[in-house]
Amino acid sequence: MKIFRPLLWLALSLMSATTTAQTLTAEHLAGIPLEECAAARSVKLTGQLAATAPWSNRGGTDWRQLRDVCWQVRHIDLSEAQADVVPDNALHSRHHLQSILLPQGVREIGSQAFFACDSLEEIVIPATVERIGQSAFSQCRRLKRVVFEGAPVVGDFAFAGCPALTDVKVQGSGRPQFSVLAFYGTRSIYEEDLMDLDTLSTQPCLVPQPAVLRCGEGDGFEWADIKQVRAPKSLANERAHLLTLLEEATNFDPKANPKAHLSITLAIDASLPDAEAYVLDATAEGLTITGGSPAGVFWGIMTLRQLLLDSNGTRYDRYSLAPIHIEDQPRLHIREVMVDPARTFIPMSELRKLVPVLAQYKFNALHLHLSDDQAWRMEVKKYPLLTQKASTRLGMDDMLMPNPGYYTQKEMKEFVRYAAQYHMIVIPELEMPGHEVAAIHAYPHLTCGGVQVPMRTICGVSNELLCPGKPSTLQFVKDVLKEYKDIFTAPYVHLGGDEAGMPPLGNWTNCSDCQQLKRQLGIAPVDQRADNWRLQKYLFDETITYLRDELGKTPMYWYEPDFKEIQSGCVTFAWRGGQTNMAIESAQQNGVKVMLCPGDHCYFDYPMTRGDMPEVNWGMPVLSLKAAYGLDPAWGHDESFERETIFGVAGTLWGESINSPERITYQLFPRGFALAEAGWSPQSVRQYEDFLRRIHPHMMDLQRRGVSVSLQHLR
């Protein structure tokens, strides 16, 4: 239902906060007006609920609409509905949900079906339920009472992270079969009936795979024998990270064992082949991590954290470390994940949670897509209306929930400092000249004709662009970049440059200011499309010169085939599926480097399997785990090409259909493991079947820590 409704929906959203709760009763949600679904606080369904729907069907199943369309629903009654299965992710991260009555005939509750439904207080599991999947009720932090009317098999982490859960009742004649991890971090019950936890492997399961790994023979050392951690002052940050890890994961306590005599030594060796390189040695004599720089030492500590996990990823080996020798260095020097708070705002507290998770797998750049057609999310003091008028997204397609929020400069500076402690840079993006409806909404003079435009509430591309013919447009861009320089310490700034209108750059054709600029630049009217792209080149040339020469930053941009020329010293992102070779050829012709993020390997907002989240979207293709792992940064060329042309790898998480922070990590993992390995590990040590073995403990570890991950590759 692609229509603009900002004023209507703003009124509805304000009304919903003050009116009495609305009840919606129907056989199905299909056909119910979106506004009624969005306003409903209580929903009762009575029909046959399907667990799956036709691919990319607008609206989707009743489950999907309960989760994503009925965004205010507090109470759901399905007691008179029919369903064999509550599907995976059925009501994933619906924070408002307070109660639900399940269908009486249901046999299975899927993995993460109620993940982070942290207002839910009680759940009754019908007698017909035979299986409850992994992390089904994980992070339901207010859940107090669970009643089992039957005896289902209860999977790993099903009720993990539920600190309020104190009342568990079994009313049937049989006993549920609880995994030993079912109540991880909550409580253990019926311990005599707990299912066994198998050990899968004794081999180290490291992601990304190191360049050189040798497991030694004989005895290692016990953590209780470690007396001290030695490090120079230049490694104070890394030493602090290591001590935190040791406190969490081991029995290291120098005061508890007077006979402790071993040391952990952190050191820098500038002769190592790369600043991010490290060597890790664990023997009976202790542990040494040597890096080419503090970053290299830090990556060695991240590897140590993985070595401390048992082969199931469910606990640390708190007592000992077997002999091991690792020599390692990155294949590429930028390993990036991009998130999109412009479409769905990511609260700063949630953004901070991403950093240690990403750093654990040696990602060293977080790219923030801070502005787009749907919202502007970064405070700019010279242009206060950007956040006063354009920082609330008023809906996205059929998901009509308002989505307010922006980052202040003060809190973003603190976040940049926090990320730096994990050797991660934060790269800001200012989209231009397209994807700027939010800025134009706040300051209409920025577009051709100075027209007032509403905030965009649908996916796709708008034809409203920044006007290059007005001097005030270029001044606006420079002013924003100048303020960004004082916030973001990274040497890079992304300028966007993609999808400038439908048709491309079309609203420049009849703009008198743009026509005047063409005459000033000597652009003869030959081909309207090409002429307009030359205006974009002018806008980019001026911006790049300012960014590079006055602010000292390296410009980045999204590759477009019409954008024929770009100044040297930039970085172009190869993002369009099927056009990577074109992007590489263009980069070589222009003397720029390439960031690989092709959609056929790196667009993690795409579903991993058919029917996976997001079930309803604009027609995204499937991006399987195997396809993600298939990214080879050499792209069929030799090592000299990779060294001279490839800048790094990036995974993108566009936010149109990612409507909660918990769904960011769900879309990212396990495919993010594949990207981490593509950017770090030499091709000679990469093998997909071995990768599947190695990621198992990491998937379990993330679930243990309450991080949502997709389990669809196990289906």
Sequence-ordered SSE layout with sheet pairings:
Blueprint: H1 6-16, E1 22-26, H2 34-39, E2 40-45, H3 62-68, E3 75-77, E4 85-86, E5 99-101, E6 108-109, E7 122-125, E8 131-132, E9 145-148, E10 153-154, E11 167-170, E12 177-178, E13 212-215, E14 221-222, E15 226-230, H4 236-249, E16 262-268, E17 278-283, E18 286-291, H5 294-308, E19 320-321, E20 324-328, E21 334-339, H6 348-360, E22 365-369, H7 385-390, E23 392-393, E24 403-404, H8 409-420, E25 425-432, H9 437-442, H10 471-485, E26 492-496, H11 512-521, H12 528-550, E27 554-558, E28 571-574, H13 580-590, E29 593-596, H14 599-602, H15 625-629, H16 639-645, E30 646-653, H17 662-668, H18 671-680, H19 688-704
Parallel strand pairs: 1-2, 2-3, 3-5, 4-6, 6-8, 7-9, 8-10, 9-11, 10-12, 15-16, 16-18, 21-22, 21-30, 22-25, 25-26, 26-27, 27-28, 28-29, 29-30
Antiparallel strand pairs: 13-20, 14-19, 17-18, 17-20, 23-24
Helix pairs in contact: 4-5, 6-8, 10-12
Tags for this model:
715 residues; 8-stranded parallel β-barrel; single chain; 30 strands; 6-stranded mixed beta sheet; disordered N terminus; alpha/beta
Summarize the structure.
The chain is 28% helix and 17% strand. With 715 residues, it is of the alpha/beta class. Residues 1-20 and 190-201 have low confidence and may be disordered.
How would you describe this protein?
The chain is α/β, with parallel strands linked by helices. The chain is built from 19 helices and 30 strands. The strands form 7 sheets. The chain has an 8-stranded parallel β-barrel, surrounded by 7 helices. Strands 13-20-17-18-16-15 form a 6-stranded mixed β-sheet, covered by helices on one side. Strand 28, helix 13 (580-590) and strand 29 (593-596) form a beta-alpha-beta unit. Helix 4 runs parallel beside helix 5. The protein starts with 5 loop residues before the first helix and ends in an 11-residue tail after the last helix.
